[in-house]
Amino acid sequence: TEVRALVSASATGFYGDRGDTLLPETARRGQGFLADVCQEWEHAALTAEKYDVRVALPRFGFVIAAEGGAMDKLRPLFRCGLGGKLGSGKQWMPWVHVDDICGILIHLLENDALTGAFNAVAPKPVTNAEFTHALAAALHRPAVLRVPAFALRAALGEFADLALDSTRAIPEKALAAGYVFRQPDLAWALRQEPEAGESPGLTKTPE
């Protein structure tokens, strides 16, 4: 069977720690371990172009889903009232709902003109402090604690940078390609979080 397209997932870690700078897909690569890994991963995927295969590279942000992933680590902490911002909380945190991960992947597969990198993130990035506040509100819990940067680095070493780096990525190419986000609002997306005892599943879009 002829392979016509390769969609290879990467990450917004490609951009590294960039403060408040807006980061469309044309932004340069950042510095650090994750940025290096993303660049090498994407470079390997692009070798498929030698065989006339169309290559698209969605760069995932922090994925919100009803089950699995990092959210499974966060929910128990927040439900116990132990959730809080990481470091200063001012770092930008590109997020995306799993509904839109699926939607963007399908969009990239079905549109033969789409190639190269695509930021698979919601149109409105938020800071870590804003995300913390929204998640606590969705779970009806306080979020008054804070994890100092030095403590996070002591516990996680270089991996702490994944939580402390500021990456203000925006989905410029996905929007230009006509993709319509199903879950563009963080507060709404998090309000769909399952309560204790409920079965997880994909969220419903608002009426």
**Inertia-based shape:** globular
Task: Give Rg in angstroms.
Answer: 18 Å
| Total beta strands | 12
Name the beta content range.
15-25%
Order of helices and strands: EEEHEEHEEEHEEHEHHEHH
> Helicity, in percent?
25-40%
Low-pLDDT residue spans:
195-207
Q: What gap, in angstroms, lies between the N and C termini?
A: 42 Å
Category from helices, strands and their pairing: alpha/beta
Instruction: Look at the structure and give the mean pLDDT.
Output: 86
- Number of distinct helices: 8
Task: Kindly describe this structure.
With 207 residues, the chain is an alpha/beta fold. 34% of the residues lie in helices and 18% in strands. It has eight helices and twelve strands. The strands form five sheets. Strands 1, 2, 4 and 9 form a four-stranded parallel beta sheet that branches. A two-stranded parallel sheet has the order 3-12. The chain has a two-stranded parallel sheet with strand order 5-8. The longest helix has 14 residues, at 33-46. Residues 195-207 have low confidence and may be disordered.
Brief synopsis:
This protein has 207 residues and is of the alpha/beta class.
List the helices and strands and how they pair.
Layout: E1 5-7, E2 10-11, E3 22-23, H1 33-46, E4 54-60, E5 62-64, H2 71-79, E6 84-86, E7 92-93, E8 95-97, H3 98-110, E9 116-120, E10 126-127, H4 128-138, E11 145-147, H5 149-156, H6 161-164, E12 168-169, H7 172-176, H8 186-191
Parallel strand pairs: 1-4, 2-4, 3-12, 4-9, 5-8, 6-11
Antiparallel strand pairs: 7-10
What characteristics describe this protein?
207 residues; alpha/beta; four-stranded parallel sheet; two-stranded parallel sheet; 8 helices; 34% helix; globular; disordered C terminus
